[in-house]
Amino acid sequence: MKRSEKSNEVLLGKEIAWEEMAPGLKRQIMGYDDKILMARVLFEEGAVGTVHEHFHSQATYVVSGKFELQVGDKKQVIGPGDGFYIPPNVPHGAVCLEKGELIDVFSPIREDFFDQA
After folding, report:
1. Could you please report the per-residue DSSP string of 8-46?
2. Residue ranges of the chain whose pLDDT lies below 50
3. Would the N or C end of the chain have less CB density within 10 A of its end CB?
4. What domains can you pick out in the chain, each with its CATH number?
């Protein structure tokens, strides 16, 4: 996906292409400008969001499913209605225990989510 200055004000999920990130893991970019980005992420049971870190602040809401979340060296099981915050440069990841959906919000925008060409 190529990045424009900002997304449209209204984005319809049925019209947004899914990006396959890893086996059993895909996302849709649901809105952004240069300060913020929101993405919808679907996990199949057993899918792994490998431990990583980035300079962005991240807030995530669990729509459905069950996940073993790791933030730093702490692990916790979370589910629907739960949320979490990841400070910049803190290692984090998740293992999907039951098929589910997350809504991720990043500040500033995740430039690496777009084609760099």
Report:
1. -S---GGGSPPEEEETTEEEEEEEE-SS-EEEEEEE-TT
2. 117
3. C
4. 40-112 (2.60.120.10)
